[in-house]
Amino acid sequence: MNTAFLLMAQYNGAAVIPLEMVCRDYFQHITPRKLVQKAQAGEIDLPITRIETSQKATCGVHLGDLAEWIDRRREAARKECDQLNGRR
Prior knowledge:
Blueprint: H1 3-10, E1 16-18, H2 19-26, H3 32-40, E2 49-50, E3 59-62, H4 63-84
Antiparallel strand pairs: 1-3, 2-3
C-alpha cells in the first residue's frame, strides 16, 4: 500500500499539510508549536516546512516527508512486534 497516495486522498492532494492538521491527525498529544520544537530538537524526525523565511510564516509538513515518517514508524513497530513474538 502506498502511504503517500493515501495521504494525498486524506489531504485532498495538498503538497504541504498545515501543522494544525498534522497534529490533529498524528500528534494529538502535542500542539503545533511543540511539534516544531521537538522537530528542531531532533526528538521527532520530521522536517517542518516554512512557506517563507519569516518566523511568522505558515508552517507545515510536506506530504512526502509525512509519508516517509509514517512508513519508518510502521517498520519500527513491525520489528518490535516480530521480536516480541519470536520471529526473526
